[in-house]
Amino acid sequence: MKNVKIGVVGYGNVGKGFVQALNQKTDFYRKIYQLNFFITAIVTKNNGCVYNPNGISLDELLTVNSFAELSDVERPDWNTISMIQQAETDVIVEISSTNLINGEPAVLHIREAILSGKNVVTSNKGPIALHYKMLNSLANQNNVKLGIEGTVMSGTPSLRFAKDLLFPSGITSVRGILNGTCNFILTEMEKGLSFNEALAHAQEFGYAETDPSGDIEGLDTAGKVAILSQLIFDEKQTPAEMGYEGITGITVEDIQMAKKENCRWKLIGSVKKVQNHIITSVKPEMVPLSNPLANVNGSMNAIQYETDLLGMVTLIGPGAGRMETAAALLEDLITIYK
Ligand code: HSE
Q: Are 328 and 160 in contact (CB under 8 A)?
């Protein structure tokens, strides 16, 4: 049995989902992979740090209302950087809140973890959208792994599917529905809800970001396109450089008009490489009902890879939510350690 000590940075919605998912799967991973994961440290921006080098009880974490109620932990005076440097950990799970403008402070956290010789697993889009190429080459230089599956389509393995499985067939273009909040809103508007009512539901269900403007204005999708561009085409283009349009201009009338033309509005993010030039796009498109993307509704996401050898391959699955994102973090952990 191999023990793996995890340090967690950030303890919001995804952090709680991660603890719940890990608790649910711990015995399974012991049995199937002979891997024994435990969380030794959790550091937060506002609620300090808790630490137990032998593992913090996941059962207890799931029942307490605050870290103050935890019984068997030390409470060192560590900020994130000192936790990364000083706690006994093999891997850092970086799930602090995302920032698609400059990626901080997560870029700093990930760099520090890599330079400290730790593997890193993250679902944080900001640092990966803006600096994946730099961070991944730093990880390679330092012989550690950087897991990013949760940054696009949460636990639906869109990135590993492309990079590990489809890549040899020659991926020529990628397009998809990459934001659950927008797809949910468009679906609910078709059923008769107003934009604001639908957005309120998306927030209630935990799909939307804390500030949902990035979702509805297309920035979140642009961040995911930036990740796909770096991972698949080795080209960096920031959301600001690519430009993006969200769904705030789509009216109920637009939706009805699309229906009459056997189409549905979808917020589509895409990237392709043509003669060494990267071409990206993030905007609402009227997709014909004959395309599988048009029939992906609610908070579901989908991605279509066009390949040289295999033609078009479509992957459909959840793209947002706390357990769905936690699933991606576990997929990365298992991939690194199995
Ligand atoms: N707010 C994002 C969405 C979460 O709605 O898709 C997952 O990245």
A: no
- Going by the DSSP 8-state scheme, the letter that residue 97 receives in this structure is P
pLDDT tens track, the chain, 338 positions:
999 999 999 999 999 999 999 999 999 999 999 999 999 999 999 999 999 999 999 999 999 999 999 999 999 999 999 999 999 999 999 999 989 999 999 999 999 999 999 999 999 999 999 999 999 999 999 999 999 999 999 999 999 999 999 999 999 999 999 999 999 999 999 999 999 999 999 999 888 888 899 999 999 999 999 999 999 999 999 999 999 999 999 999 999 999 999 999 999 999 999 998 999 999 999 999 999 999 999 999 999 999 999 999 999 999 998 999 999 999 999 999 99
Say which of 118, 224, 266, 272 is annotated catalytic: 224
Protein residue with its CA nearest to atom 8 in ligand 1:
320
Residue 125 Cα: closest atom of ligand 1? 8
Which residue has the least CA distance to atom 7 on ligand 1?
320
CATH fold, domain 158-318, is Dihydrodipicolinate Reductase; domain 2 (3.30.360)
**Residue 250 and residue 155: Cα distance in Å, rounded?**
29
pTM of the model: 0.96
Active site residue 25: no
Tell me the C-alpha distance between 304 and 75, whole Å: 47
For residue 51 and ligand 1, the question of a CB distance below 6 A is answered with no
CATH of 2-155+322-337, one of 3.40.50.720, 3.40.50.1970, 3.40.190.10, 3.40.50.2000: 3.40.50.720
* Dihedral-angle region of residue 203 (phi above 0 means left; psi in -120 to 50 means alpha; beta otherwise): alpha
Domains 2-155+322-337 and 158-318 share a fold: no
Distance 223 CA to ligand 1 centre (A): 11
Q: Using a 6 Å cutoff on CB, does residue 319 contact ligand 1?
A: yes
